[in-house]
Specification:
This protein is of the alpha/beta class. It has 15 helices and 18 strands. It folds into 3 domains: 191 residues, Class I glutamine amidotransferase (GATase) domain (Rossmann fold, 3-Layer(aba) Sandwich), CATH 3.40.50.880; 189 residues, HUPs (Rossmann fold, 3-Layer(aba) Sandwich), CATH 3.40.50; 95 residues, 2-Layer Sandwich (GMP Synthetase, Chain A, domain 3). The chain binds xanthosine-5'-monophosphate.
Length: 517
């Protein structure tokens, strides 16, 4: 595998994603993981990611003691990107200084000036546009290293020590703003490192089934909450394939139940927990608190379900299946200083950060290493109906994160459901549902003045959000036709009581997140 050591760059996940798109399995772990963790994964290539730190700051993260000896001894290729390059230079006896000019954004570099062709860049002399984002600069290279590219300003842009298998790029090859970046990564991994590009979803499925069978004992029972979305459905189908009817699912809406039973043959029980959720959320306005409460309630419902099952089966279920995805794991990581990872907490995804400590069930998260589009691919292999696979994602905490503030205010939930239904139906009628990654309405906790039927109204505003995305990590807002927006806005104000204003959210991620909370 290609192992990425994460030093906190916002792009780390993207490196993982890009490498997987070359049919090469890659995994990302904290840059300060122990040598044992790294050794256990047995990588053939290690990529040291970028990060917000300077190698000169007192607590700058680094690879563990013994790392250099380990890679040298085992013939492992190492590529440092941005901070990763500086780390290599500094640790191997070169010199990194705080740069005079900081280089951010697009830059032109010239490759293979003064080194022979065939290293990081196949042919010398050419110019490339790349995306830089760094303050520090490598000014003296360790022994045996050569400059493989320089920026037009003269700064070191790429280094290599072919004999010792160490390479470094000062820019970010993984972003689309570095047009030749992917070519360089591919050349590095396939031609230089000789990595096998044979990673297939079928293998992932078979491997996961094996792991689940090994983990769950023959007498153990497993429970799973279905949300009606892609992730939990695929996760449950996979576990069902592994252990059959020792899986027991619960689900909240009557509507989709039939499909679970008839098309997927999943054993499902229907529960209605809305009253319990709403009473716990009453008066709570802080988004993180809301997420934590939902996470806690979520687990307590399982505990009850598990207890009921125990009565029925004569033994307690031991495991809980969750459709946690790789992006959920990356984004919920604790902030720097906590000793776990180096990127910032964005929000507590309810199925990750929000889990209470005293949870009595052990977790099975078979999709934990996959991105959304990979889960859809896996679903296809598992014969999950296309209607499920194409359904827009729905957040674990549900509509609560689409009502900023108190979820129980007025008839916010009722209004939100009506508006959402009109919006989604209009999108389906316009034949654009599959072009959009996710679309939904948001209830705005503000009242505005309107005039409806010659009368002054003082009612709520709602926002419409629709985004395109590859994996939910970054997103762009969807460009609707004006006529579509006009029709939807009219329909909402004319048919939903309590709404007199419709807004369109035109922010990408970043700077916004997809959900409002
Ligand atoms: P954000 O709002 O973080 O959302 O940009 C990215 C994607 O994740 C979904 N989402 C969640 N999914 N548990 C989930 O299972 C959560 O707590 C959660 N929060 C957001 C969101 O709908 C989008 O698709």
């Amino acid at each position: 595998i290609v192992l990425i050591l994460d030093y906190g760059s916002q792009y780390t996940h993207l490196i993982t994603r890009r490498i997987r798109s070359l049919s090469i399995f890659s995994l990302c772990i904290s840059g300060t993981s122990s040598l044992k963790t790294i050794q256990d994964l047995n990588p053939s290539v290690i990529i040291l990611s970028g990060g917000p730190h300077s190698v000169h700051s007192p607590n700058s993260p680094s690879f563990p003691d013994g790392f250099l000896e380990y890679v040298d001894k085992n013939g492992i290729f190492v590529l440092g990107i941005c901070y990763g390059l500086q780390l290599i230079v500094q640790k191997l006896g070169g010199q990194v200084v705080i740069g005079e000019k900081q280089e951010y954004g697009k830059m032109v570099i010239q490759v293979n000036v003064g080194v022979k062709d065939g290293g990081l860049f196949k042919v010398g002399g050419e110019k490339q546009v790349v995306w830089m984002s760094h303050g520090d600069e490598a000014v003296k290279l360790p022994e045996g290293f050569e400059v493989a590219a320089r920026s037009e300003q003269g700064a070191v842009a790429a280094v290599e020590n072919r004999e010792r298998r160490f390479y470094g790029l000062q820019y970010h090859p993984e972003v689309t703003h570095s047009p030749e970046g992917m070519q360089t990564l591919r050349h590095f991994l396939l031609d230089i490192c000789g990595v096998d590009a044979g990673w297939k979803m079928q293998d992932v499925m078979e491997e996961e089934i094996k792991v689940i069978r090994n983990m769950v004992g023959p007498q153990d029972h497993v429970i799973c909450a279905l949300s009606g979305g892609v992730d939990s459905t695929v996760a449950a189908t996979l576990v069902h394939k592994a252990i059959g009817d020792r899986l027991h699912c619960i689900f909240e809406q009557e509507r989709v139940m039939q499909t679970f039973e008839s098309d997927l043959h999943l054993p499902v029980t229907c529960v209605d927990a809305s009253v319990q959720f709403l009473s716990e959320l009453k008066g709570v306005t802080d988004p993180e608190k809301k997420r934590k409460i939902i996470g806690k309630e979520f687990i307590s419902i399982f505990d009850t379900f598990a207890h009921d099952l125990e009565q029925k089966l004569g033994r307690k279920p031991t495991y809980l299946v969750q459709g946690t995805l790789y992006p959920d794991v990356i984004e919920s990581c604790p902030p720097p200083g906590s000793g776990k990872t180096h990127s910032h907490t964005i929000k507590s995804h309810h199925n990750v950060g929000g889990l209470p400590k005293d949870m009595k069930l052990k977790l099975i998260e078979p999709l934990k290493l996959l991105f959304k589009d990979e889960v859809r691919e896996l679903g296809k292999i598992l014969d999950v109906p296309v209607s499920f696979l194409k359904r827009h994602p729905f957040p674990g905490p549900g509509l609560a994160v689409r009502i900023p503030g108190d979820v129980t205010q007025g008839n916010a939930l009722d209004i939100l459901c009506q508006v959402d239904e009109i919006f989604i139906q209009a999108i389906k009628d316009a034949g654009i549902y599959d072009e959009i990654w996710q679309a939904f309405a948001v209830f705005l906790p503000v009242k505005t003045t309107g005039v409806q039927g010659d009368q002054r109204t003082h009612s709520n505003a709602v926002a419409l959000r629709a985004v395109t995305s590859q994996d939910g990590m970054t997103a762009d807002w969807y460009y609707f036709e004006h006529k579509f927006l006009d029709d939807v806005s009219r329909k909402i104000c004319n048919s939903v009581r309590g709404v007199n204003r419709v807004c369109l959210d035109i922010t990408s991620k970043p700077p916004s997140t997809i959900e409002w909370e």
